Amino acid sequence: MGGPWEGLPRDFSTELRAEQQSLATEIIREIRSAVPEFSRPLSGKFGTGIQQGVETALAEFTDRVAGLPAPGPRQLRVYRSLGRGELSEGRSLDALQAAFRLGARIAWRRYARVARRRGLAAEQLVTLAEAVFAHIDEVAAASVQGYVDARTDRAGALGRARHRLHDLLLAGADPAELAAAARLADWPLPAQVAAVSLDPGPAHRQPSAPPARLPEYVLAGLDVPQPHLLLPDPAARSPIRSSRRRCTGAAR
Known about the structure:
This protein is mainly alpha-helical. The chain has eight helices and three strands. The chain is about 60% helix and about 5% strand. Strands 1-3-2 form a three-stranded antiparallel beta sheet. A hairpin with a 6-residue loop joins strand 2 and strand 3. The protein is elongated, with a radius of gyration of 27 Å.
């Protein structure tokens, strides 16, 4: 198994388990008080996620002290869901990381009191602290992975939606269909669209500078015989002139 948990008595887990319910309540109360992003009522999916995250982390820590294996798929799903939830709320991971740190400090204080009642030696208290913060590092890493996975999924879905919108615009689709596709693509549908034809250049030619990132409002068709860009307003052509040249060669 490895890790600092091995330096603690296995039966110490029984005393820690007795603290779980009241400790979870204390941690959630303090997080809601100290972290503004989590101060709203714990209802719906948001509340369920926070409650499950705290309870799962405490139960898993006790299991590790008891000598049980590292977190399995169920626990990892709970932690990753916390990260996904932060992205869906439109936040960075800062608030969640602050909540993790606060929860770890509260858990350590409670566990230290239990350890002193038990009469654990000073070196075992140090081991207990290491175990608490190693555990919260694992929880945080899983939540970061969930956040990254969700962001990747969102980028992929948005890319597919914009590719479809690009094809519908070129095909002259029905206005209602275009409007629905534009909403899915998060692309404000304008009254006019500018099409910019690009020179693909010789196949062997190497770019003279690193490719520039095109602005968000540009729909690009580059992997076709006639590369092109679609812009939501003819007046928007000039701001991308330098990017266009660096990405694909000179514009026609």
